[in-house]
């Protein structure tokens, strides 16, 4: 469980950091959201383990847990972006 918490924290920080960096560069929250969502999808899809062909019920449950974890990391990434968006939305 501690590893899961660390990866959720890292995803949250990556989402927030990328949003801040893009916003500081462009001063536009729309572009920041676009970059953050595309980066989250690509990184979570390519870096974290994907489901494998299942041979029994244990493999199916393992695949289900991988999909749930990927979704959780995506939600954490976008939550980090949303928190930063809340603080910078009216600053130009």
- Give the averaged pLDDT, no decimals: 89
- Unreliable parts: none
Q: What is the count of β-strands? A: 0
> What class, by secondary structure content?
mainly alpha
Task: Indicate the percent of residues in helices.
Answer: over 70%
Q: How big a fraction of the residues is strand?
A: under 5%
Largest sheet: none
Radius of gyration (CA) equals 16 Å
Broad shape: elongated
Order of helices and strands: HHH
Number of H/I helices? 3
Q: What's the end-to-end separation, in Å?
A: 40 Å
Q: Would you give an account of this structure?
A:
The protein is mostly helical. Helices cover 83% and strands 0% of the residues. It has three helices and no strands. Helix 2 (29-47) packs antiparallel against helix 3 (57-88). The chain starts with a helix and ends with a helix. The mean pLDDT is 89.
């Amino acid at each position: 469980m501690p590893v899961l918490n660390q990866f959720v924290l890292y995803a949250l920080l990556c989402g927030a950091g990328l949003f801040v960096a893009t916003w500081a560069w462009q001063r536009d929250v729309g572009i920041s959201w676009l970059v953050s969502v595309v980066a989250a999808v690509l990184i979570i899809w390519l870096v974290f383990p994907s489901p494998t062909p299942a041979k029994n019920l244990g493999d199916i449950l393992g695949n289900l847990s991988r999909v749930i974890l990927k979704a959780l990391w995506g939600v954490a990434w976008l939550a980090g972006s949303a928190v930063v968006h809340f603080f910078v939305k009216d600053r130009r």
